Amino acid sequence: MRKRCDRNRKRSKRRAIYCPIHKCYIDSVSQKYQLFADNVQQLRQRGMGRQNAHILVAAKTTVSLKGEWLEAFWCDRCQKTEWYYVKRTGERTYNLSVAPSRLWQQVTGTIDPRGNPSVGEFTRKQSKRLNYNSSKSFHFYD
């Protein structure tokens, strides 16, 4: 028979996510970055039929993928933060793998590491400067 305090517990339980190397519990240190699919092959890899995938991509340019995201975790034994691709397999079970670089192009809410292609090189350099002094950035000739 269970104790009364166990029966009345209303708080949510901790996610059972463990380090793939040490098998110890790891703590989340970032938000979840949801994945999306923008072409038919990505939907087909996840088990969707060819015709349904074509219809869905034609109707919507991007499709949110349920139960898949990128998240950073801290492991006490490794003493480092690592980004993982997390896939929910059950109600409280997850598969973890190190996040490959190709998945970063399928994530919503992140900044492209290569920068915005519509921004010029001069503007990009000026935004990275620590001591921004606009008049000294331009060379005037008499």
List keywords for this structure.
single chain; alpha+beta; five-stranded antiparallel beta sheet
Order of helices and strands: HEEHHEEEHH
Biggest beta sheet attributes = 5 strands, antiparallel
Mean pLDDT: 82
| Number of E strands | 5
Radius of gyration: 23 Å
Residue stretches low in confidence (pLDDT < 50, at least 5 long) are none
Strand content: 15-25%
Query: Separation of termini?
Result: 92 Å
The coarse overall form would be: extended
State the share of residues found in helices, binned by percent. Answer: 10-25%
Which structural category do the helix and sheet elements fall into? Answer: alpha+beta
Total helical segments: 5
Description of the molecule:
There is one protein chain. It is built from five helices and five strands, in the order αββααβββαα. It starts with a helix and ends in a 5-residue tail after the last helix. It is 23% helix and 24% strand. The protein has helices spanning 4-7, 40-45, 50-59, 121-128, 134-137, and strands spanning 27-28, 33-37, 63-75, 80-88, 94-98. The chain is of the alpha+beta class and 142 residues long. The longest helix is centred in the middle third of the chain and has 10 residues, at 50-59.
